[in-house]
């Protein structure tokens, strides 16, 4: 996302004051002219607010360097003005003057004309955003603004956001072309005229605005290629709007361009199939609910039967144990033969009056 110029001087003063007062504020010192980072290049990475560790700062520096390397091959000229990437620890720690500019589910924003990019590390984590995607997205805003100088402020917001998403390869706020398909049929797309100066505040409409911008610019890129679109942006000035330059370059009216894009969206982008598949999946889930309910009922009944069987087995085992105990008690109470107290043999002895047999010889 980017924010238009307003109160530029006040913001610059506030940020300069803030950076100067922050004990953590420190510039990334390594200079690498090949990727435009550090004192010799156009980009500087600094702590903006909060407790940003050295490892996070170094990671950001690496990502900015990689993004610059990518974008220097995209834009015809390197940026003429230096710009700063401020890294903030979390949303709560943002300076009050900056807080309104960070959308609810967005991890970053650019202040065009002030050459500032603000990236909030905590929001990157919370929204599970791609660090590289966020960095490239915001750098595209800065480089496109400088590319169109001194008329960067005249570029429509939808073009800025569409190009940033396309080059970053990552949409914002979960924007998807699939969500646009039914709006084409019901004529509920947002007008690009309404997306020229700003985007809606309503979260759902905002997501649609990002999706439309991504989809339309993606189609323009496929049809006319990036160099043509950058030339159109460069041709924009106080007398020639971006839209007029687009019509002049393509030879198609705004209406024809938008109709061709909608035709592609419906029949060439695959969004209709993806939307249909998604709906079918939802319908299948709904259709499967009764089957799942029956399966659950059958399982509950089976578990009940198993529980009953187990209870019966336990009752039978308890009864058998009780019977055995009763039999043992009965046996213990019945009198039996006494043992010989003297320990003498009870074997019959030979009577003393019987004649003894002589030993056989
Ligand atoms: Zn953006």
What does this protein structure show overall?
With 361 residues, the protein is an alpha/beta fold. It has helices spanning 8-21, 54-72, 121-126, 131-147, 157-168, 178-185, 203-235, 242-250, 254-267, 271-333, and strands at residues 2-3, 43-49, 83-88, 108-111, 116-120. It has a domain at 1-147: Collagenase ColT, N-terminal domain (Glutaredoxin), CATH 3.40.30. It has 10 helices and 5 strands. It has a 5-stranded mixed sheet with strand order 1-4-5-3-2, with helices on both faces. β4 (108-111) and β5 (116-120) form a beta hairpin. α7 (203-235) packs across α8 (242-250). The longest helix has 63 residues, at 271-333. The chain is elongated, with a radius of gyration of 41 Å. Residues 6-35 and 339-352 have low confidence and may be disordered. The structure holds zinc ion (ZN). Zinc ion is lined by residues 1-2, 137, 141, 161, 164.
Q: Class of the domain at 1-147, according to the CATH hierarchy?
A: Alpha Beta
Shape: elongated
Q: CATH homologous superfamily of the domain at 1-147?
A: Collagenase ColT, N-terminal domain
Mean pLDDT: 83
Helical proportion, percent range: 40-55%
Q: Strands across the major sheet, in which order?
A: 1-4-5-3-2
Class computed from helices, strands and strand pairing: alpha/beta
User: Which CATH-level-2 architecture of the domain at 1-147?
Assistant: 3-Layer(aba) Sandwich
Largest sheet at a glance? 5 strands, mixed
Strand fraction:
5-15%
């Amino acid at each position: 996302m980017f924010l238009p110029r307003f109160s530029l001087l006040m913001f610059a003063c506030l940020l300069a004051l803030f950076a100067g007062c922050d004990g953590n504020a420190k510039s990334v010192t390594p200079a690498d002219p090949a990727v435009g980072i550090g004192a010799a290049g156009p980009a500087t990475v600094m702590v903006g607010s909060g407790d940003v560790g050295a490892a996070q700062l170094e990671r950001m520096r690496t990502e900015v360097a990689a993004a610059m390397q990518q974008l220097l091959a995209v834009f015809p000229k390197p940026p003429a003005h230096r710009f700063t990437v401020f890294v903030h620890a979390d949303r709560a720690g943002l300076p009050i003057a900056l807080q309104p500019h960070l959308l609810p589910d967005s991890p970053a924003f650019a202040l065009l004309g002030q050459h500032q990019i603000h990236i909030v590390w905590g929001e990157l984590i919370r929204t599970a955003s791609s660090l590289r995607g966020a960095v490239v997205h915001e750098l595209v805003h800065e480089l496109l603004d400088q590319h169109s100088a001194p008329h960067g402020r005249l570029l429509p917001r939808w073009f800025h956001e569409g190009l940033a998403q396309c080059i970053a390869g990552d949409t914002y706020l979960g924007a998807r072309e699939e969500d646009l398909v039914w709006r084409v049929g019901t004529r509920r797309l947002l007008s690009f005229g309404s997306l020229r100066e700003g985007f809606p505040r309503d979260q759902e409409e905002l997501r649609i605005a990002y999706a439309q911008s991504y989809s339309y610019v993606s189609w323009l890129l496929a049809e006319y290629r990036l160099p043509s679109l950058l030339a159109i942006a460069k041709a924009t000035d106080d007398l020639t709007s971006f839209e007029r330059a687009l019509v002049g370059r393509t030879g198609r009216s705004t209406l024809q361009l938008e109709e061709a894009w909608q035709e592609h969206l419906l029949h060439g982008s695959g969004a209709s199939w993806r939307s249909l598949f998604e709906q079918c999946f939802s319908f299948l889930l709904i259709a499967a609910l009764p089957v799942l309910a029956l399966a659950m009922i059958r399982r509950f009944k089976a578990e009940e039967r198993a529980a009953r069987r187990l209870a019966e087995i336990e009752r039978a085992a308890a009864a058998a144990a009780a019977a055995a105990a009763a039999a043992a008690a009965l046996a213990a109470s019945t009198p039996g033969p006494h043992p010989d107290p003297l320990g003498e043999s009870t074997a019959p002895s030979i009577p003393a009056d019987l004649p003894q047999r002589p030993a056989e010889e």
